Amino acid sequence: SRNDVIRERFGMDPKPEMLLGLAALHIYITVSATRPSQKISLKNVEKEWGLEPFLPPSLLQGIKEKTLRKSLSQQLKAHQTHPSSGTKGSAIQAKLQYLRILNELPTFTGVLFNTVGLDEKQSATTLLVGPRHGISHVIDLKTNLTTVLSEFSKISKIQLFRENQGVARVETSIMDAK
């Protein structure tokens, strides 16, 4: 999931604030796992790893460096102390928070594919493929209205055929039907 965030594999454009929050959690998780006794500071992270492994390129280009550092530092401090007890938050809590944020992204939990009609009878559509939706037809991308075509548990076979440059035909066998 963290690689998907860094490589900007979204079905929508997330807000920079959310990306900064995810980056701060990513930093927190990484430092907690590799240096459990070390205090987490942005300066140490920059010295050891730099910020690039934790931030999507659009965020690095779209926000002033000073603003970026200030926001990340504030969020790192917030993650280091648990609000109710004042104790240090755990890496597991940070991972769960990271996944909760990703789960709120409507189309993050799958990959969108644009289909093309191979003849005039078939129109172009968009498919959403992912663990939550199986294979679904996207009716309206703005409202995330979808209809499930098949759940993964009902799929018995998938075949991929290259039609031409950039176009592939996918045949899916669904338990006793094709």
Automatic annotation (TrEMBL):
It holds the Pfam family FERM_M. SUPFAM superfamilies: PH domain-like (SSF50729), Second domain of FERM (SSF47031). CDD domains: FERM_B-lobe (cd14473). PROSITE patterns: FERM_3. Residues 1-178 form the FERM domain. PANTHER family: FERM AND PDZ DOMAIN-CONTAINING PROTEIN 3 (PTHR46221:SF1), FERM AND PDZ DOMAIN-CONTAINING PROTEIN FAMILY MEMBER (PTHR46221). This is FERM and PDZ domain-containing protein 3-like. It comes from Bison bison bison.
